[in-house]
């Protein structure tokens, strides 16, 4: 059984279903990438996994436990962390305070985890007293990921971590994602920079109109002609 | 010139009181996203709670923390029994509920304590004089008390886990939930903090003049003006906002009848809404 | 009470219920349809009342008025003045979230009250303005009641027409989903301002009628309690978004409010002085009970899911950020 196991999930924002029966699995030792056209429901799928959606049908389990109807605040404690695409830092708080908020649920000493995050993102170490809202997009993305890692999650949900970043930062972000995954944190990531993302992905899902379209390994998806033409822009 | 300095003194006193009210309004707005129209009457409640304790023979300064506790408990109870249920539907309903709460609290206080003016202590205080400027001991107490309380709030918000959680939730509720920050506990602490500050504001207001069931309602508009001036949802801005409004209100009496002091506060607020609705201070959040 | 006294009481009860019904319809356009939070009803009500009072009352030595003008002129100016006031307030606040509108309207209402009390040259201060004539020869109470009912029905029909019109649909769409409407290319601020101004002029008209009904007005009548709070309770109780509900709520709550006055008459003598506070407390509690148990009111809005009955538990509470941020 996989760490995260989503089976035939249907759900939406109160009105119509946006997800119409999606299956997905993710494990601790892999990077899983979701791609698809705008409005396909990629972000919605991540929100579903993080308990932010009204689930009308289907089941989700995490670590063997049913999580279909749990809320975000119940899920963080179980080892899922989520980085939204936008509004993903506390803008009036410093980098350090952002990380502390990420560790809110921890009662133990988390200084080692914080040190590790500062090693992973050296830029943050230099700027720990700076207000997150005043930082560049790339730096904010690091703050957001660092914050999400403070609880030492088993699975990290990332919604377009490279959106709006310069090419240099994009490469760096993918390297960091790989590094995070190496420490045993499963990655489930939505990406617009699909080609690059699939290069580091173990497996990938192509989503259209709230349904699974194609599921395969990252390498196979890159080689797939249809994927290449329709979803990777030729 | 003497007039001006004297009015400046009164302005700082009034500004201290407004600041304490405005920090609470700002905190509540930051966390719950609604303008709390019963805040003035929470101040009145705090003042009269203190009066009840004083009438047992205790000095005002001892009565203050007791009144804070009473008021904070009542604020939490109001939130848990009424506001909390309405939060789940739409925050804008909280506006009308708090408006009703304002009138209800005021009537209740009037029923219990009567409709007349009352004072904490009878008799006249010997004022200090610097040249022609007169300062009552109570004035020093009010300004000093406000400074201490503002420092305490600052320590709380910047150095305690709950204080930081409050700022986090005020910055971004959804992300706070994603961190596992317990929203309801934060809300409760917000009411405790705002209730204590409102109590101090009410007690100081009663020390400066008299206690009356409408005292809080009458100062609500200047408190809102201070809050908006400082940037609604930004507790630190409330300090500047409170001082500017307080001083402007007192100085205006040089050129206008004192009854229009609230109008001056309002005019500044409207100017602010036109020019810069996010408050005096630049920057995020 | 003799029969004629009872009859007279009944007529005055209904007349005031009718005036409150007009106020409630005005608020329904602002809050019920558009989601605007006006708690300065007293201000618009007062502007309307004083405009027509100053213009139509008999000349007096103690203040600039009365000008002894015909009552229709007075009522027209009442409508225009309240409209102008609302344009100014609306212009400042329409681009901001509704909390600012709330604060701005209550501020204006308070300032108007201060002006009424203190600018004796204009308003005769706390002594008030006497000798305001009855309009159009509606001298008997019954005739005046019929006049009020006619106005109420006309306003009701206009509001119903507005509700069903494309304009009304846009207003509700703005209330439900501002961004969606913006995406559809509508100028939200203009629609909001129109709704706010029209609603406020209806309140001004109600104020004018109130002045003519009593023939005497003083600042006391424009405390936020009577003119603002009661109207809100009326609309919420009757059903915001529903014009029939607005009228039903006005009549019911006015009966409750007037009835409570009779009831507090039986309180022991030492409580008599506090009767007002008791009544306010009761209505304040009534409001909370309605909000908690039947937020949609007696006659809910007829459009599927209303604003308050739309549970969105998992998505979290809807959040609107001031446009300025
Ligand atoms: N909060 C929301 N409320 C209602 N509908 C929403 C909400 N968020 C998204 N939707 C709708 O759900 C559908 C899927 O949106 P989603 O954000 O999941 O797409 P996406 O695949 O992430 O697209 P993109 O590549 O643009 O990020 C869209 O039709 C969108 O309009
Ligand atoms: Mg998306």
TrEMBL record, chain A:
<dbReference type="InterPro" id="IPR052156">
    <property type="entry name" value="BCAA_Transport_ATP-bd_LivF"/>
</dbReference>
<dbReference type="InterPro" id="IPR017871">
    <property type="entry name" value="ABC_transporter-like_CS"/>
</dbReference>
<dbReference type="GO" id="GO:0015658">
    <property type="term" value="F:branched-chain amino acid transmembrane transporter activity"/>
</dbReference>
<dbReference type="GO" id="GO:0016887">
    <property type="term" value="F:ATP hydrolysis activity"/>
</dbReference>
<comment type="similarity">
    <text>Belongs to the ABC transporter superfamily.</text>
</comment>
<dbReference type="Pfam" id="PF00005">
    <property type="entry name" value="ABC_tran"/>
</dbReference>
<dbReference type="GO" id="GO:0005524">
    <property type="term" value="F:ATP binding"/>
</dbReference>
<protein>
    <submittedName>
        <fullName>Branched-chain amino acid transport ATP-binding protein LivF</fullName>
    </submittedName>
</protein>
<dbReference type="InterPro" id="IPR027417">
    <property type="entry name" value="P-loop_NTPase"/>
</dbReference>
<dbReference type="InterPro" id="IPR003593">
    <property type="entry name" value="AAA+_ATPase"/>
</dbReference>
<feature type="domain" description="ABC transporter">
    <location>
        <begin position="1"/>
        <end position="234"/>
    </location>
</feature>
<dbReference type="InterPro" id="IPR003439">
    <property type="entry name" value="ABC_transporter-like_ATP-bd"/>
</dbReference>
<keyword id="KW-0547">Nucleotide-binding</keyword>
<keyword id="KW-0067">ATP-binding</keyword>
<dbReference type="GO" id="GO:0015807">
    <property type="term" value="P:L-amino acid transport"/>
</dbReference>
UniProtKB/TrEMBL annotation, chain B:
<keyword id="KW-0812">Transmembrane</keyword>
<dbReference type="GO" id="GO:0015192">
    <property type="term" value="F:L-phenylalanine transmembrane transporter activity"/>
</dbReference>
<feature type="transmembrane region" description="Helical">
    <location>
        <begin position="219"/>
        <end position="247"/>
    </location>
</feature>
<keyword id="KW-1133">Transmembrane helix</keyword>
<dbReference type="InterPro" id="IPR001851">
    <property type="entry name" value="ABC_transp_permease"/>
</dbReference>
<keyword id="KW-0029">Amino-acid transport</keyword>
<feature type="transmembrane region" description="Helical">
    <location>
        <begin position="259"/>
        <end position="275"/>
    </location>
</feature>
<dbReference type="Pfam" id="PF02653">
    <property type="entry name" value="BPD_transp_2"/>
</dbReference>
<keyword id="KW-0813">Transport</keyword>
<feature type="transmembrane region" description="Helical">
    <location>
        <begin position="139"/>
        <end position="157"/>
    </location>
</feature>
<dbReference type="GO" id="GO:0005886">
    <property type="term" value="C:plasma membrane"/>
</dbReference>
<dbReference type="GO" id="GO:0015188">
    <property type="term" value="F:L-isoleucine transmembrane transporter activity"/>
</dbReference>
<keyword id="KW-0997">Cell inner membrane</keyword>
<dbReference type="GO" id="GO:0005304">
    <property type="term" value="F:L-valine transmembrane transporter activity"/>
</dbReference>
<dbReference type="GO" id="GO:0015808">
    <property type="term" value="P:L-alanine transport"/>
</dbReference>
From TrEMBL, chain C:
<feature type="transmembrane region" description="Helical">
    <location>
        <begin position="246"/>
        <end position="267"/>
    </location>
</feature>
<feature type="transmembrane region" description="Helical">
    <location>
        <begin position="100"/>
        <end position="116"/>
    </location>
</feature>
<keyword id="KW-1003">Cell membrane</keyword>
<protein>
    <submittedName>
        <fullName>Branched-chain amino acid transport system permease protein LivM</fullName>
    </submittedName>
</protein>
<feature type="transmembrane region" description="Helical">
    <location>
        <begin position="142"/>
        <end position="159"/>
    </location>
</feature>
<feature type="transmembrane region" description="Helical">
    <location>
        <begin position="39"/>
        <end position="58"/>
    </location>
</feature>
<feature type="transmembrane region" description="Helical">
    <location>
        <begin position="273"/>
        <end position="293"/>
    </location>
</feature>
<feature type="transmembrane region" description="Helical">
    <location>
        <begin position="6"/>
        <end position="27"/>
    </location>
</feature>
<keyword id="KW-0812">Transmembrane</keyword>
<dbReference type="InterPro" id="IPR043428">
    <property type="entry name" value="LivM-like"/>
</dbReference>
<dbReference type="Pfam" id="PF02653">
    <property type="entry name" value="BPD_transp_2"/>
</dbReference>
<dbReference type="InterPro" id="IPR001851">
    <property type="entry name" value="ABC_transp_permease"/>
</dbReference>
<keyword id="KW-0472">Membrane</keyword>
<dbReference type="GO" id="GO:0015658">
    <property type="term" value="F:branched-chain amino acid transmembrane transporter activity"/>
</dbReference>
<feature type="region of interest" description="Disordered">
    <location>
        <begin position="302"/>
        <end position="325"/>
    </location>
</feature>
């Amino acid at each position: 059984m996989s760490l995260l196991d989503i089976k035939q999930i249907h759900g939406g924002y109160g009105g119509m279903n946006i997800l119409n029966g999606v299956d997905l699995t993710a494990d601790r030792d892999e990077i899983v990438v979701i791609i698809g056209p705008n409005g396909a429901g990629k972000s919605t799928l991540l929100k579903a996994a993080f308990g932010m959606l009204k689930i009308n049908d289907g089941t989700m389990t995490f670590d063997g436990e049913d999580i279909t109807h749990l809320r975000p605040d119940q899920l963080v404690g179980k080892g899922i962390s989520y980085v939204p695409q936008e509004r993903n830092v506390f803008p009036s708080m410093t980098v350090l305070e952002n990380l502390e908020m990420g560790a809110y649920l921890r009662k133990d000493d988390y200084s080692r985890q914080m040190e590790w995050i500062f090693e992973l993102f050296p830029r943050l170490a230099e700027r720990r007293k700076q207000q997150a809202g005043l930082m560049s997009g790339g730096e904010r993305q690091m703050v957001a990921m660092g914050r999400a890692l403070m609880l030492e999650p088993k699975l990290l949900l990332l919604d377009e971590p490279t959106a709006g970043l310069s090419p240099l930062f994009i490469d760096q972000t993918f390297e960091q994602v790989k590094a995070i995954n190496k420490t045993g944190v499963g990655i489930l990531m939505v990406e617009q920079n699909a080609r690059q993302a699939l290069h580091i992905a173990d497996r990938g899902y192509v989503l259209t109109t709230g349904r699974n379209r194609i599921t395969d390994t990252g390498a196979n998806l890159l080689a797939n002609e249809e994927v290449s033409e329709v979803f990777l822009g030729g | 010139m003497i007039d001006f300095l004297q009015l400046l003194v009164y302005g700082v006193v009034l500004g201290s009181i407004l600041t304490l009210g405005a920090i609470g309004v700002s905190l509540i707005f930051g966390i719950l996203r609604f303008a709390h129209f019963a805040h003035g009457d929470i101040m009145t409640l705090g003042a009269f709670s203190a009066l009840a304790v004083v009438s047992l023979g205790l000095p005002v300064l001892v009565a203050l923390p007791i009144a804070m506790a009473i008021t904070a408990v009542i604020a939490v109870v109001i939130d848990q029994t009424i506001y909390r249920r309405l939060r789940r539907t739409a925050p804008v309903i909280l506006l009308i509920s708090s408006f009703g709460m304002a009138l209800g609290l005021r009537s209740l206080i009037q029923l219990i304590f009567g409709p007349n003016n009352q004072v904490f202590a009878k008799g006249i205080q010997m004022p200090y004089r610097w040249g022609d400027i007169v300062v009552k001991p109570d004035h020093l107490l009010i300004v000093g008390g406000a400074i201490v309380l503002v420092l305490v709030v600052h320590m709380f918000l910047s150095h305690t886990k709950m204080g930081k959680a409050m700022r986090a939730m005020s910055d971004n509720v959804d992300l706070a939930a994603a961190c596992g920050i317990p929203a309801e506990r934060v809300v409760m602490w917000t009411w405790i903090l705002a209730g204590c500050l409102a109590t101090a504001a009410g007690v100081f207001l009663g020390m400066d003049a008299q206690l009356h069931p409408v005292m809080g309602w009458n100062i609500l508009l200047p408190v809102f003006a201070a809050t908006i001036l400082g940037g609604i949802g930004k507790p630190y801005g409330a300090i500047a906002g409170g001082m500017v409004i307080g001083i402007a209100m007192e100085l205006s009496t040089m050129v206008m009848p004192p009854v229009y002091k609230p109008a001056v506060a309002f005019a500044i607020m409207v100017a602010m809404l036109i020019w810069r609705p996010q408050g005096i201070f630049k920057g995020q959040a | 009470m003799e029969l004629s006294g009872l009859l007279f009481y009944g007529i005055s009860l209904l007349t005031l219920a009718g005036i409150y019904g007009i106020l409630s319809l005005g608020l329904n356009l602002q809050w019920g349809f558009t989601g605007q939070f006006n708690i300065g009803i007293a201000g618009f009500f007062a502007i309307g009342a004083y405009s027509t009072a100053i213009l139509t009352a008999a000349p007096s030595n103690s203040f600039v008025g009365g000008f002894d003008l015909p009552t229709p002129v007075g009522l027209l100016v009442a409508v225009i003045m309240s409209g102008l006031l609302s344009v100014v307030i609306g212009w400042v606040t329409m681009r901001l979230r509704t909390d600012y509108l709330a604060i701005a309207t209550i501020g204006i209402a308070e300032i108007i009250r201060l002006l009424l009390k203190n600018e004796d040259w204009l308003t005769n201060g706390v002594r008030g303005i006497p000798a305001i004539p009855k309009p159009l020869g509606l001298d008997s109470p019954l005739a005046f009641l019929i006049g009020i009912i006619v106005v109420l029905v006309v306003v009701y029909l206009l509001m119903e027409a507005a509700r069903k019109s494309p304009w009304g649909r846009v207003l509700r769409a703005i209330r439900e989903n501002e961004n969606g409407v913006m995406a559809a290319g509508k100028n939200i601020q203009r629609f909001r301002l129109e709704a706010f101004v029209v609603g406020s002029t209806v309140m001004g008209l109600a104020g004018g009628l109130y002045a003519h009904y009593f023939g005497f007005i003083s600042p006391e009548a424009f405390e936020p309690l009577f003119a603002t709070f009661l109207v809100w309770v009326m609309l919420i109780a009757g059903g915001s978004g529903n014009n029939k509900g607005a009228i039903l709520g006005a009549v019911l709550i006015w009966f409750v409010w007037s009835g409570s006055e009779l009831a507090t008459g039986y309180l022991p003598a030492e409580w008599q002085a506090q009767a007002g506070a008791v009544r306010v407390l009761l209505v304040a509690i009534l409001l909370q009970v309605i909000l908690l148990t039947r937020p949609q009111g007696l006659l809910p809005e007829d459009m599927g899911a209303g604003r308050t009955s739309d549970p969105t538990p998992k998505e979290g509470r809807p959040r609107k950020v001031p446009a300025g941020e």
